[in-house]
Amino acid sequence: MGKQNITDTLTQAGSFFAQTARGLEDLVAEELRMLGAEKVKTQFMGCIFDTDKAGLYRINYMTRLASRILMPIAKFDCWNDNDLYRHIHKLDWTDMLRLNNTFAITAVGKHPVIKHSKFAALRVKDAIVDKFMSELGSRPSIDPIEPDVHFILHLQPKFAILYWDTSGSPLHRRGYRQSSVEAPLQETVAAAIINLADWDEKTPLVDPFCGSGTLIAEAYMKAANIPAGYLRPKWGMRNMPDYDDKLWKKVKKEADANINTEPADLISGSDIDKSAVKATRNNLNLLPGGKDISIERKDYAEIEDLSNRLIVANPPHGIRMKTEEMADWIKKLGDFLKTKCAGSTAILYFGDRQHIKFVGLKPTFKRPLPSGGLDGRAVRYDLFSGRMEDQKK
């Protein structure tokens, strides 16, 4: 078998693929268009799109909602593991990888014959290693934890696609969450909640259950135009064979020039847990201007007034509470919203959707939003300034 040039395989494979959490496809598609992507089409847990090299760098650096940005290397018929090995082996791997690169392969999807993802990944690894050994007599090393280059194999019943992970690690790893508490909300999900809130960035925003501060951080980064990848130290695209460091620095400089820390005065948070308050402060301090966001230790029930605000919160999931205890706690939260939050909009994330019925308020919408194995819901409540009975179910 002769070599197959990487440029040819990219032409055959088609567009880039933005991997998303389930339920975020439409939001990611909208964001991609705002970042300059073209021919955006949604798929299950992702979006296909076209862009140029500068666009690839910009989307990786600025997307708040996508999990990874994948570049297809090859798409091919795949009936068994021998097909898989053969098609991978004929690619020009010495043109893509350097000997001093480390790499890893993750296999996903379902195939009627290749039933085990680890076996599929092993066959890809063997094909790459064998190609290097036959041509150079040496090979790059495997690093399953923090590789320089990460490949993702997506298996389908009759074909397979091999992707280069241009992000390098999941994009929800922003870099600001150095301190954490129990059951933190994933950053991309928090960003989606802020997106769904349709915040005008003029109304004060508050999180009375701030935890490790993820919702506050995502709200602040969006309002302050801080790129989602501002603190990330590594990128998979920087090890691509056609990586352009000058262009990357230009894209990054242009994005960073738009940072505006003034919205810090609009945002505040609190939590009854002292360790949560400390974690939030530690995390926000890593962001430009984040130290100016007001965070205090307080039980939400002690707050006198939260009227005319945007309230975003991930209430406790009740892992250690009995069902009846959690129902009573959620009911009290609903009463708080009714009595102390007139004229406000509340976006609450319920990791257990069964808790929604205990709030006692009529939702404006309920949006499925899975996070970390939870089949959660983002629920919006518009809290009118008029009679409380108008807000009840």
Give a written overview of the molecule.
Strand 10, helix 10 and strand 11 (294-297) form a beta-alpha-beta unit. The chain is elongated and about 75 Å long. The chain has 393 residues and is α/β, with parallel strands linked by helices. It starts with 5 loop residues before the first helix and ends in an 11-residue tail after the last strand. Helix content is 31%, strand content 21%.
**Oligomer kind:** single chain
Note the gap between the termini: 68 Å
Mean pLDDT: 90
Strand content: 15-25%
Number of strands: 15
Going across the major beta sheet, what is the strand order?
Answer: 2-3-1-4-8-7-5-6
Helix content: 25-40%
Task: Give a brief description.
This protein is an alpha/beta fold and 393 residues long. It contains eleven helices and 15 strands.
Helices and strands in order, then pairings?
Elements: H1 6-13, E1 16-19, H2 25-34, E2 38-43, E3 46-50, H3 53-62, E4 68-77, H4 81-89, H5 93-96, E5 102-109, H6 117-136, E6 141-142, E7 149-155, E8 159-165, H7 187-197, E9 205-207, H8 214-223, H9 245-256, E10 267-271, H10 274-284, E11 294-297, E12 310-313, H11 323-340, E13 345-350, E14 365-368, E15 377-382
Helix pairs in contact: 3-9, 4-6, 7-8
